[in-house]
Structures are given as structure tokens and as C-alpha cells.
Amino acid sequence: MKDVRLLHQPFLPGSLIGPFTNSNPGLGGVCTFVGEVRSGDRDDPQGPVEALELSHYEPLTLEGMQTLADAALERFDLMGLLMVHRVGVMHPGEPIVCVSAAARHRRGAIDAVDFCMDHLKCAAWFWKRERRASEKGGEWRWIEPRADDYADLERWK
Amino acid sequence: MKDVRLLHQPFLPGSLIGPFTNSNPGLGGVCTFVGEVRSGDRDDPQGPVEALELSHYEPLTLEGMQTLADAALERFDLMGLLMVHRVGVMHPGEPIVCVSAAARHRRGAIDAVDFCMDHLKCAAWFWKRERRASEKGGEWRWIEPRADDYADLERWK
Amino acid sequence: MAVTVLFLGPLRDLAGEPSRKVTAPLDWAGLLQAVGPEVAAQLGEERVNVACAGRVLGDKTALQAKDGDEVALLPPVSGG
Amino acid sequence: MAVTVLFLGPLRDLAGEPSRKVTAPLDWAGLLQAVGPEVAAQLGEERVNVACAGRVLGDKTALQAKDGDEVALLPPVSGG
User: Fold this and answer.
1) Of A20, A59, D20, D62, whose Cβ has the fewest other Cβ atoms within 10 Å?
2) B41 within 8 A of A105, measured Cβ to Cβ
3) In this complex, which of A26, A38, A106 lies closest to B39 when CB atoms are compared?
């Protein structure tokens, strides 16, 4: 069962995971990662995050997610894969992304989630910017992946 | 936030994950693994699993889980860790184990879940046996970890 | 007779607008000229991709956009 | 004056009972004698641990159980 969605509205990961799990009878394990808008590190001198905006490019983004999901299903021993990504303006605490993998054994499920998240983070057609409270009256600032994110992606090559 | 539980009754992982996530405000991601009783591989000549029993040793098991949770909190950059394990007789589709880690960045959350599951699988005080429908009138058979499970555990040493 | 050039992510700020109409046909040299020096400098970087008519170009310098095509300029991505 | 020897997991099947009362004090030699040859053979394996009074012994052959102690025989584990 492959379920890939690009959402323009807030979503509740919990409301997706239950049906996803039930749609894969006989599974041994489900691994799920949910990424949320962080309010910013406590010691961040730039102040708290007010909002995050994810933009996408319609002709490429969803198709790219489908291709990524197919690659994960091909590479790992999975029964099902759920991949949901928000676009638009979000606020701290709101879910951005949810990847859930069902498999007979935990290894495939955990690795598939890890693989998908690394690719969504710096190899999928999204652009991210954030607005902080204290920064020049709330100017938007573009966010690039961290060096760690690129290093994580290299693990799968 | 550390929440470690040994449960003698069925549980709904979804009912634990929501409150756990909410108890870690400012998080960037939550990774969750839920292990369920498998009905057995489709091509398994031993027939479908009827029941699984997990036994434990009261003076060691919960304390060992606490020690494991502390080790994960020490080793990974986490905000919170939830670790729940069932004991008793369970049936296919019932959750056995649920580990959930909240962190500022996904790496810590995913690795912590991986680490805890590897240890719960073959380095925690549980003994597992299963009963299959077709096998000698439903005799119980003890299950040891697979070679893959031991190999996975070695990764953390 | 036009090609739509779309500026994604931070390139939109550099360009000062989300898209621009350019006379067709449009090749790589024409694109560099049409987008202004700042965006053109970004296009020179390997990390910046170009899609034409919904397909990411393996070699962006081989761009050959014709009337009605949308050319999307894709800076380094960041999701999740 | 007794020590309770507890058989965990598959050792319970080998012993034919979940636990057995043994006269205190009980050392390693006494334990091997008290549990019967099948369980004793298992105890010889490195993968089988022994706990006394709620503590896993680093060296199980150093067992010194006294009256009232519970001695748990712990075969290879399997959880999750």
C-alpha cells in the first residue's frame, strides 16, 4: 500500500497512522517519523520562529515524492509506505511531514523512514523559509539544509 | 520526559503518542516504532501464529528498561523518550512494543528508536514463545532472536 | 509567442518577481540574458537546476524552450 | 531455611516446573546438583545468566545464595 500526498492544509498524523496500519494486515512493525515546525532552539539569538513556509513546484514535487516512495519500496522489504508533506505557511508545533513504513521486520521499516526523510530533507522539490519574531520586523529568511543533512543523504549512495 | 512502562494489558499506541508529543513542546521531530504480533509469513509451512507470549522477570525487566532508556537519553540528543512493552499472552495484530523519541532534529529521534529496539529485541529481560495453529495441536515454541537481530545490536558497541 | 520563466524559492527574491514572460524560443544564452546578472550568476552554479515543460534538464545549458513552455529555475532545495 | 530457584523462559520447560525450593545456603556446585543434568548443562553455557536476590551475577560460578534469596536462571532473551 503506497500513499503519497502533498497537503495544502494542516493535518493530524495520528489520523493517518491508524488507517495506514490497519491497511497492512500481517505486519510486524510500523515506523513513523513526524516532523514539526520547531519554535527555535532556546538559546537561539535570532528569537523564536513565528512561521515557516514551504513552497513547491507543482509539476515536479508530488511526482518526485512518488518516485522516492517507489525507490524506498524497491530498496527495503516493506508492506506499505505512507508519505505526507505539507506546503504553505505553518506555525510552530504544526506537522510538516509524516513518513510511515510498515514491514514484516523492524529493520526495513526503520531504514525506509530514515531513507525517505533524508531525501525529503535535501533532495525533494521543496523550498523552505522562516520568519522570526525579533529579526528586522519579521523578515522571511530562506533555510538551506544543514551540512549534517547532506552527509546523511550520502549514506544511501 | 522519560516514560517507561511494562504493561500486562493490551494498549493502543496512538493513545500514548499524542500525549507524549504534546509533553515535549518545541520538538522538531518524533520517531515512533510499534511492533505487533505477526500472523506469520504467508509462505510459512508452520501455519499461522495463534498466540504469542512474552514473559519477564519482575525484579529485572522494568529496571533494565529504565537503564536502557537512560542510556538512549545519554547517547542521543533527545527531548523525551517513551518506551512501552507488553507482557502476557497476545494475539496477531496486537501491539507488543512501542518506542517513541522526541528530539530537536530527526537524526537523534530515529537513531534512539533504532537503538532501543535493537536492545529490547535481544538484550532485555524478556522471553518469547509462540503457538501456531497447525503445529502438533497448538504446542508452544520458544523464539530466539534472529542472527540479524544480534548483528543489529553489535552496531552500537 | 512567449516562454514563462518561473523563479522558485530564494531566486524569486533575487528576481523581484515570481515569473517573467520572455520571447520564444529561448536557449541558455537567452535565459542568462533575460533573468538579469544576479539570477544569471546563480544559474551558473551546479546546485541550481532548470526544468523545461515539467522536466528537469540533465544539461541545463542545452535548454531549448519553445512558445508556451514554462522554464522553472530551481535553486537548492530544503524540505522536511 | 530455603533458597527459591526460579526457571525462566525455556528453562521452565526443561525443569518441568516454574520454581524449586532448595536448602540454603546454595553455591554454584549446589545449584548444578539441585537443578538436574539438563538444566545444569544449560547453565554451563555462557549465554545463560544467573541472578541472585534481584541482581545479575557477573560471575555466576561465584553464587552464594542464603536463606530467603531467590535465584533466577535466565536463558537467552528475546523481546520486542
Assistant:
1) D62
2) no
3) A26
Are D80 and B35 a contacting pair at CB < 8 A? yes
Amino acid at B85: H
Q: Which domain holds residue C55?
A: 2-74
Whether this model's pTM surpasses 0.80: yes
Which residue among A59, A60, A121 sits closest to C79, beta carbon to beta carbon?
A121
| pLDDT tens track for A63-108 | 999 999 999 999 999 999 999 999 999 999 999 999 999 999 999 9
The one-letter amino acid code at A31 reads C
ipTM for the predicted complex comes to: 0.94
Chain D: nearest CA to B84, how far in angstroms?
A: 10
Tell me how far CA of residue C21 lies from CA of A95, C17, C63, in angstroms.
Answer: 36, 11, 16
B136-156 pLDDT, tens per residue?
Answer: 667 899 999 999 999 999 999
Is residue C25 assigned to a domain? yes
Number of domains observed in the structure of chain C: 1
- pLDDT per position as a tens digit, A148-157: 999 999 999 9
What is the CATH number for A6?
3.90.1170.40
Q: Give the C-alpha separation, C72 to C50, whole Å.
A: 6
Q: The CATH number of the domain where D31 resides is what?
A: 3.10.20.30
User: By the 8 A CB rule, do A10 and A67 touch?
Assistant: no
